[in-house]
Backbone:
């Protein structure tokens, strides 16, 4: 069987899997961003209780494995009456995990905004909320986008784990193909190339463009 | 609602201690490979032979932008197709060592590039050999900035070892899944795995940051 024939037979399954991988990736990214902003801000709160909750969350999710968290959410939460569909459990686990890493990026970036910016906003009599949304966060966003570029790749790679709870993503499909045909090089090799292309030629250029766009927006082209 | 059974925890404890040892062994073994491989990868990128530099660069990018899980499967299943059967442990250590080797090569590169050009020039002006330049001038200065990255990846490799369970390495995750299949209890095994990971990775992260400070002090680079 040549490689072309292999693709003709199994290509459509892998394409379906790739679509699911991309969907999981996008949803996980949304979850991660929300979690990151929420807990990143909580870490900067003046209230020690709020800060403590965020710290515990971040340490738990960063201190254990994504795979452990995924299995915990999928196999243990139902025992407490919280049944999640495997599709939801998949991107939720990846998003919650990566969000904990993102929260530290958000916190670091906000603290890297120069003090003068905070003082100027206070001097202009802006409300706390307005100061955050109009002055601090836009500048913090430009600071944190480059490390987010790496984190987003980690999210894409993290979604491969959802195959282990039988979400039919690319990883899952090539494993099935491998079991059926034993053509491991072709099956896993193709998947390697697909992930590589997604990361290197779609996600990374997008993040770079976003970086450029955002820094132009705040006048730092 | 389901109740937590302590007696099950005590029953399982010996198996989990054993499995935790194997997890640490996998992490340590994988990291040893990664530390050496990362050095090879970074030195290969510093040669003047263009095709090699380019090939290694792309290889590192490929490894870093594809899932470790996929690489584990690749290493484990590709061998037999060519008549080379690897045990789960061998395949797992190769995959994880390769993955983290690529990451560590980037850490080393950052460290080496942070050494000012004047240091290289001065070493050359003093007619120091290449080995001596690296050993006495470059590495002592490249090390402190690299240690924090190296430490992060040591904790990272530890947390990624559960992925080796998919090819049958009997570490913590594999044991928990086996217990779940035998006893239909998932709450205790998976929670115990999580707790063990926390109990090891949090102190490890703390010790690494202490070590980093110690190295900076010892090399006279207090910040």
Residues:
């Amino acid at each position: 069987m040549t490689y072309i024939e292999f693709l003709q037979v199994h290509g459509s399954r892998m394409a379906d899997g790739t679509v699911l991988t991309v969907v999981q990736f996008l949803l996980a990214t949304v979850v991660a961003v929300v979690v990151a902003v929420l807990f990143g801000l909580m870490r900067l709160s003046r209230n020690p209780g709020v800060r403590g909750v965020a710290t515990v969350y971040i340490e738990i999710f960063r201190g254990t494995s994504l795979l452990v968290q995924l299995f915990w959410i999928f196999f243990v939460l139902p025992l407490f009456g919280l049944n999640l569909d495997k599709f939801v459990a998949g991107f939720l686990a990846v998003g919650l995990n990566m969000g904990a890493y993102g929260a530290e990026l958000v916190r670091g970036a906000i603290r890297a905004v120069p003090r003068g910016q905070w003082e100027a906003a206070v001097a202009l009599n802006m409300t706390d909320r307005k100061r955050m949304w109009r002055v601090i966060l836009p500048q913090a966003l430009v600071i944190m986008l480059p490390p987010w570029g790496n984190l987003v790749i980690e999210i894409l790679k993290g979604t491969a784990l959802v195959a282990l709870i039988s979400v039919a993503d690319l990883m899952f499909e090539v494993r099935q193909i491998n079991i059926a045909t034993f053509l491991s090089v072709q099956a896993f090799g193709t998947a390697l190339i697909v992930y590589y292309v997604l990361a290197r030629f779609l996600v990374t250029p997008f993040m770079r463009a976003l970086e450029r766009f955002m820094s132009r927006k705040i006048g730092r082209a | 609602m389901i109740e937590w059974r302590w007696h099950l925890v005590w029953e399982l404890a010996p198996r989990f201690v054993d499995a935790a040892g194997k997890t640490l062994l996998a992490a340590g073994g994988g990291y040893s490979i990664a530390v050496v491989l990362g050095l090879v990868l970074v030195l290969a990128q510093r040669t003047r032979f263009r095709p090699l530099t380019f090939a290694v660069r792309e290889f590192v990018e490929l490894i870093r932008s594809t899932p470790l899980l996929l690489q584990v499967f690749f290493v484990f299943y590709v061998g037999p197709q060519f008549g080379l059967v690897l045990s789960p442990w061998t395949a797992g250590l190769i995959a994880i060592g390769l993955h983290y080797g690529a990451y560590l090569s980037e850490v080393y590169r950052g460290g080496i590039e942070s050494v000012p050009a004047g240091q290289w020039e001065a070493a050359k002006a003093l007619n120091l050999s290449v080995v001596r330049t690296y050993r006495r001038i470059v590495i002592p200065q490249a090390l402190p900035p690299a240690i924090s990255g190296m430490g992060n990846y040591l904790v990272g490799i530890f947390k990624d070892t559960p992925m080796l369970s998919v090819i049958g390495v009997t570490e913590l995750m594999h044991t928990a899944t086996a217990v779940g299949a035998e006893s239909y209890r998932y709450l205790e095994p998976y929670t115990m795995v999580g707790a063990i990971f926390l109990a090891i990775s949090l102190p490890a992260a703390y010790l690494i940051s202490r070590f980093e400070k110690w190295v900076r002090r010892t090399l006279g680079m207090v910040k």
About this structure: Helices of chain B lie at 6-45, 50-64, 68-81, 88-113, 117-125, 130-160, 172-183, 187-218.
